Fold this sequence. Notes:
single chain; 356 residues; alpha/beta; 8-stranded mixed sheet; 12 strands; disordered N terminus
Amino acid sequence: MPPQTKCHLVEESRAEIAGMESRNTVIRYGKPLDSERLKRGLRKSESITAASNFSRAIQSGNRLVRCPLCDHEERDLIAKVYGFSYVECFGCGSAYVEDPPSAEAISAAYRSDYYTAANRALLANPETINYRLSNVAIPKVSFVLEHCKTGSKRWLDIGCGVGEILAAAQKHGLETLGIETNAMESDFARSHFGLSVVEQYIDASNIHAFKDRFDIVSMFSVLEHIPDPPSLLATISKIQKRGDTLVIETPHFPSISAFSQMAFPDLINRMMHPPLHLFLFSVKVIESMLLAHGYTVRARWMFGQDFYEFLSTLTEKIPLSGSRLQKSLAALTNEFQQTIDNAGLSDEMLVVAERM
C-alpha cells in the first residue's frame, strides 16, 4: 500500500464526520451491546473455518474496471480474503470486491446450507432473539421514528430477515410488511413474530404493487450483498413520494474491524467476507448515492462491534482466552467501542433519509 494511502483512511473518515457535523444532519455515536451474549453458542474457530470453506468453493469473476458505486477507476488492494480481492476506491473511499463471482454464483450462495445455517445460529436463535429485539431492533426503530415525519403508519422492510425490525415497528403501532427471499428466515418471522412476509425480490417488474403504500422503507444489511446498489436505490426511489423515509444500514469503511481483518485475512467470518459482502460503504458514497436518487440525509448513527471483532480475532491468533488480560479487555468492550465510534471508525452505520 502506498505511504500516502496508509493514513488517509482515518484522516478522510474524520473529515467526513466534520463535514457532516457542519450540516443539518443529526449524528449519534455509540450503541452499548453485549456482543458475547449476542453471539452465544457461536464458536469463532469453527465459524472461521466454515466461512473460509464456503468462500473458497466459489469461483471469483472478472476484475471490475470501475467502482460500481462511483464509477472511479483508481483503487488500491487492501486485502486478499479467501480467494477474492478487496480494494479501496480512491474516488468514494469505499471498499469493494474487485473480482465478484457471477450473478448465478451469488444467488446460489444465498440458497446454500452454509448461509442458512449461519443465519439460523445468529438470527433465528430462540436463545438470543429476545435480546436482539430489545437491544438491537427496538433502539434502531426508535432512532428512525425520532427522525422521520410525524404520522408515519406503514413500514416496508426489504430483506427483513427473521423480522425483529418489523416486530419492533409494530410495538410502535405501525402496519408492517416484510420482503425476504430466504425461506428459513421468512418462516421464522411469521411463526415467531406473526409478521406478514412475502418471498420475492422487488424490481422494475413489480414496483407498482408497492408504490406510495409505505411511509417508511428500510434496508438493513441489504445493499452490501448486491452487485449494483445504485440500481436498487433507483428502484426504491420510484415507490416513495416526497416526505417519505428511507432507512439504510450498511457496513462502514474505514473501520477498526476492517483494519483488523486486513491484518488477519485468514481469520474472517463477518464484514469482509466474500462474496456475501461485496461492499463496505463510506459515508461519502452513501450520501452521494442518496442525493443522486432524490434523498437528503436527516440522521446518521455510527456504531459497531469493532473492539469485540479485534479482541476475538486476536484471541484466535494468540493464546489469550481465559487470561486476565482477555477478561479485563472484554469487560471494557463498550468503553473501547465508544471511543472507536466517536472517531468515525465504527463498522456499521444507520442512515435515515427523506425523499425530496
